[in-house]
Specification:
Elements (H helix, E strand, L loop, with lengths): L9 E6 L8 H15 L4 E4 L9 H9 L2 E8 L5 E9 L2 E5 L1 H4 L17 H12 L4 E5 L10 H11 L15 E5 L12 H5 L9 H20 L15 H9 L2 E3 L1 H9 L1 H5 L4 E9 L8 H9 L4 E8 L2 H7 L3 E4 L7 H4 L2 H10 L2
Parallel strand pairs: 1-2, 1-9, 5-6, 6-7, 7-8, 9-10, 10-11
Antiparallel strand pairs: 3-4, 4-5
Length: 353
């Protein structure tokens, strides 16, 4: 790469949030500040990104505009909480973590046997009530494993109080797209309970109970509708919320980063770029399984892509996958609690360039 001043470079920065530390916007800004010190004449384009979890709402607001709606809904333990979603004309963008996120609970409160997705249903109902005809839902960061039963109950309570799902007319003309990189089915060894519930506070004893609850719900639902979508890719996302959207709301499931990059026209942004910078909190072989940086890599080709992260392992595999460089932003002896501080993380990203 030539030194600054020889020619004007275009660098695209599209870094995922560093969970629990930096948002995508903050990480991008730190990288841009660092790059400007080295390449003062470069054109630097920042693209906030998210794969459906933390930062999904913010990324889409930056991409498409719209008005943020803030309403009071129920959190996973049915306590009131302020939650936001994006409304732009007849399109709404919902980040389910706003109402059902793991970050809304203390570690002691996490229990997927009781946590409910009811609040997500309230967000959907409010968007529909305000005229949304297409709802894009980011499925990430959930505290629940209720197969979406809570969400469906909320929709019945709003649109057919005292009635049943079949009494709801308001949702018939609404189109849903769920954004998730989770490809797991609802039930079984690779399903929502066994794969994801432990990180939501489930004990080993809870796992077969959660799985059986979801299986029974899917069997009843299949009998009612005459079809079964519990095995579809994405049904196990967000504790089975994916299944509820697929089975009950006929949703289309797309990889989260694909949805966002298509929306912002990412291929057009990078087609004349000299370099793309992407990143995430921890980069390893799981990055290769469809995580956000891989989406950036695929849509950037043939432009070189540099991957930065707070922690890096499996570097050779990442390089073989096509990343031009893979860099850890943190010194090897930096304690995790210090590295997770926002000011430290932003400074270390700046220093990476």
């Amino acid at each position: 790469m030539q030194a600054a001043g020889f020619f004007e470079m275009k660098i695209v920065v599209a870094i995922d949030s560093f969970k629990g530390c930096l948002s995508s916007v903050e990480a991008n800004q730190a990288a841009a500040d660092g790059l400007r010190r080295t390449f003062p004449d470069a054109e630097i384009v920042q693209v906030p990104v998210s794969d459906g979890g933390e930062g999904f709402l913010e990324a889409f607001q930056t991409a498409i505009g719209g008005e943020v709606q803030e309403i009071t809904v129920n959190d996973p333990l049915m306590r009131p909480v302020a939650a936001r979603y994006l409304l732009r004309g007849k399109e709404a963008v919902i980040e389910i973590a706003q109402a059902g996120g793991l970050t809304l609970l203390s570690p002691e409160e996490r229990n997927p046997m009781v946590a409910t997705s009811y609040g997500t249903g309230q967000l959907v109902a409010d968007a529909v009530s305000k005229g949304a005809e297409h709802i894009l839902v980011g499925l990430g960061g959930s505290a629940t494993s209720d197969a979406g039963i809570g969400m469906l109950r909320a929709l019945i309570d709003v649109f057919a109080p005292g009635g049943t799902w079949d009494d709801i007319m308001a949702l018939k003309q609404v189109r849903f797209t769920i954004a998730s990189d989770v490809r797991n089915p609802l039930c079984g060894a690779n399903g929502a309970a066994y794969v994801f519930a432990p990180q939501k506070g489930a004990t080993p004893e809870m796992l077969p109970l959660l799985d059986e609850r979801a299986r029974r719900f899917a069997e009843v639902s299949a009998k009612h509708f005459g079809f079964d979508r519990s095995e579809m890719a994405g049904a196990g996302a967000a504790g089975g919320l994916g299944y509820a959207f697929l089975q009950y709301l006929n949703a289309e499931c797309k990889p989260g980063i694909q949805v966002l990059l298509e929306t912002v026209g990412f291929r057009d942004i990078v087609k004349d770029a000299d370099l793309v910078i992407t990143g995430e909190g921890s980069a390893d072989r799981q990055t290769l399984m469809g995580k956000l940086p891989m989406g950036i890599l695929r849509q950037s080709s043939p432009t070189p892509v540099c991957l930065i992260a707070g922690r890096v392992s499996d570097r050779e595999q990442l390089l073989q996958a096509g990343f031009t460089r893979v860099e850890c932003i943190n010194p090897p002896d930096l304690p995790l609690d210090i590295a997770m501080r926002k000011d430290v993380a932003m400074q270390n990203i700046m220093n990476a360039f």
